[in-house]
Amino acid sequence: MSEREPIAVVGLDCRFPGARDADEYWALLMDGRDGTGRVPEQRWDAERYHVADPSGPDSAHTARQPGRSNTVRGGFLHDADAFDPAFFGIAPREAAAMDPQQRLLLQCSWRAVEDAATAPQDLAGTATGVFVGVMANEWAHLALKDYDEITAHHGSGNGYFMGANRVSYHLDLKGPSLAVDTACSSSLVAVHLAMNSLRWGECDHALVAGTNLIMTPVINIFYTQAGLSAPDGRCKPFSASADGIGRAEGVAVLVLRRLSDALADRQPVYAVLKETGSNQDGRSNGITAPNRWAQEQLIGSVWQRAGITADDIAFVEAHGTGTLLGDFIEAQALGRLTSGRSGGSVALGSVKSNFGHAEGAAGIAGLIKTVLALHHRTVPPSRFAHDENTKLDLPGQRLSLLKSPLRLPSGTVHAAVSSFGMGGSNAHAVLASAPRTVHRTQPGAPGVFTVSARGAERLRANLLAQADALSRRPGDQLAQLCWTSNRVKSRLPQRVAVAATDLPALVAGLREAARRSDDPGPGRRPAPSVAFAFTGQGAQHPGMAAAWYRSCPAYARHLDALDELLAPHTGRSVRDLLLEGDADIHRPRLAQPALFAVGYAMAATLAEAGIKPSYVLGHSIGEFAAACVAGALDPADAARLVARRGALMETLPEDGGMLAVSLDTAEVEPLLTGRQRLGLAAVNGPGRTVIAGDRGELAALADQLTERKVAVRPLAVSHAFHSPLMLPVVEEFRRVCADVPRRRADLPFFSTVHGRELTGEEFLDADYWARQITAPVRFAEAARRLFATGVTHVVEIGPAAVLTGLLARLRPADGSPVSLHAAHPGEHAPGHRPQQLFGELWCAGLTPDWDLLYADSDRLPRRLPPYLFDASFRAWRSGDGPDLPEPSASHAPRSADTEAPAPTDGGQSRAGEAPDPLAALAHRLVCRIGGHDPGLVHDDSRLHEDLGFDSIQAVELKTRIERELPLLGTLPVEELLESMRTVGDLVRYLRDRALADATPTLTPEGTGR
């Protein structure tokens, strides 16, 4: 870090007239389009305040009519009143009181941070600064004119300072937070302050913004009276037809970092801010008159500190308002510095020609134009350049208005931006193109793309936006784009994940997900508890889980480590056996070590990714990997045991088999009486029992059962596992296990030998492992005990989905749902199965560490389209004078005193029960105070996160409850706040208070008597 360290522009978002985002802004500039239009009816009655400019030889001496504007045009944002309050946890009533500039800044800030390939949640709690340039506060004049209607939220909804503070609050940013008002230069001065803050180490990220909304005709009237207003509402900078200012709106946010930090994180950089500066005109021809010498001094000093001269500047984005005096002075000040340059002329332009003067947002509008020009290495043309004002002598100043786009040369290119305030506060910046960086990629690497949103409808919109953008991206960026989505787009409750090996498949998958109109799943889930269920023998197949090795670096690392542990005991590489698809995998001496290696490597990979089990369960050989995960067995010991176990079993005669029968255990046990060479091998569920033993006896039993119309199915096995035929190896295996340390499991271990959780006095020792060889696998009993714990997710760990189907049938129908997943469905699983699994687990409410799926070269941030907000909420106030009626188009919510319809579910009772008046009252008050649609408020709605209740609303709720239910007495604030997590919690609290006395009698309006 140094005093002069360059500052990187790593993210941005903007809305300007004719442009809803940065892409449309760039298109508007490159096309040279006009973004101005007529004053929207929502703002004010433009004709009522309009008077045409006088014309004729005596017009200069004609008095201007008071209270009138000479224009009905300007640059206006479309849907400037649209906002998504629920996204930010803001109650509709509070949102309606907020200055729309605050609303726009919130959404624009979120999108700009996402554009920086950063999740806004990752900045929470950090020293991130917020610097907002703003000069308009017309909402306060409109919202606060009726004293009787002022609420507590009008205070936080108005004021320059709240523009910055609101962003800091909702994004939980701890750095400097301030608003800057230097009139038209506000936002470029804000950039200057942010750069200094970053260089001083005061913050590590900075959000720099500018905002301007035209809500009343006041400034239009002022400009007209001052002779500064263009009748057609258009700025024509440096043009012979320049005749004044056309006003414009806009909001924009830049995300800044120290360049060294951005490069260290491999963050994409739009452009680099090399130096900024600010000064004041001091005493000039008038407080609103520009000062040529102050401008020249500022620009020269900034260039000097940046280490450049006029020869290095490719283009200048001028203040360029289109007033005769302003254009003349600015051209003269620049010309003093550029007229002696070698080479060609410096390109000159002003974005005001496209949509007008955005005042508080004007500086950042020009800065973003410059940033994008450096990024695209093309300078857009200037409107009105074909009608250049020859009196300015621009060619003599070595300045040139661009009539067509200018392609910038390769290498480092410099540009400059000026912004001058009406009161004399000036700002200037020097930028350079971003340094060239080269990143190697891994061709053909798969990925899983994640999209999340607050609700199902927004999820569909964002899925389509991502699909459209990805369809235009290079195919070799797939893994990087997926990794970025995991990093940036994975934090909201409604979720979709699409795994793919190429971009066309990913785009198709996203569009298919958007077409599915059903709800993608619950937005909120209980705190997760995960169980790993390890598959047993029979799941093996040639090449099993090889896709994991090839597509998941972490799994490959864990399998390599296990292969080293197993090799001394197996005599060959289990890893190579798996990757080569060797059919020897079915031999017990290889199958059992391989199943252990695959299961434990999968479990270790998931655990490393943060998916750690709270419970474990294993089916037969699967118990060894389960024991390692539970901490009862070291992997080295387990490797020796499973290798020896399989080898011992392979020495037994291959005269046994296994038979699945559709009978319960109680029906099977009598069939085994007198059959000494048969035994109960596994109980996998109702009507799912396995018998093992002598093949001849099994065949006779199968014939007997078939005659009774009982379904039977011989299993493809080499030996009669878990049967009396295994007895010859039991004692030898007990001796093999004798030197294994006796340790209790660190996690609840659901034993399929006992059919229950092991107690604290039971060990996984030599006796347990010896007994396990012949004991029946009591999987169904162990699984039922597992489900009784309230586990929320069960992941089958192994090379095939054997247990998942059994668990689905054993899963209780009542109670909380349990999410079931198979790590690897089987031999026909796709090559990107790990990516699919991570996506499934994430959609089910877990939070994996996505990095484990990607090589380091693919963990490279790429820009993705930012979030698309819900635009259905609207709140606006007309800017007409007080003598005119207020338009009826506002969609602002009711005040807290307006009667709201009865809630659709609040106070509903179960069949046969009387309605709950306390519940109805609680729902009614919550809806009134927050301004919520009663149909959208339910018992599980969280008052803070979902309904936007803050301390102000909580106190108001307390007061209203005490007023409505006086028999409850005074409610302690701390007690009430603790009860206010959800609406249902509030109802239960009130019910408990009411039970202390007789239940209050409520009138139909809810008033207690």
Describe this structure as you would to a colleague.
With 1009 residues, the protein is of the alpha/beta class. It is built from 34 helices and 29 strands. Helix content is 36%, strand content 15%. The radius of gyration is 36 Å and the shape is elongated.
Provide the descriptors you would attach to this structure in a database record.
34 helices, eleven-stranded mixed β-sheet, 1009 residues, disordered C terminus, elongated, six-stranded mixed β-sheet, single chain, alpha/beta
Widest sheet, order of strands: 6-5-7-8-1-9-16-15-10-11-13
Taking the sheet with the most strands, its summary is: 11 strands, mixed
Query: In which range does the helix fraction lie?
Result: 25-40%
Strand content: 5-15%
Query: Segments where pLDDT lies below 50 for 5+ residues?
Result: 55-61, 884-914, 1003-1009
Write a short abstract of this structure.
The protein is α/β, with parallel strands linked by helices.
Topology:
Elements: E1 7-15, H1 22-31, E2 37-38, E3 73-74, E4 82-83, H2 92-97, H3 100-115, H4 120-123, E5 128-134, H5 138-143, H6 152-156, H7 160-171, E6 177-180, H8 186-200, E7 205-212, H9 218-225, E8 250-258, H10 259-264, E9 271-280, H11 292-306, E10 313-317, H12 324-338, E11 346-349, H13 352-355, H14 362-376, E12 378-379, E13 399-401, E14 406-407, E15 414-420, E16 425-433, E17 447-453, H15 456-470, H16 478-488, E18 494-500, H17 503-515, E19 530-534, H18 546-551, H19 553-570, H20 574-579, H21 588-608, E20 615-618, H22 622-629, H23 635-650, E21 656-661, H24 665-668, E22 678-685, E23 688-694, H25 695-707, E24 712-715, H26 730-737, E25 749-751, E26 756-757, H27 766-774, H28 779-787, E27 793-797, H29 803-810, E28 819-822, H30 833-843, E29 873-874, H31 917-930, H32 951-964, H33 973-978, H34 983-995
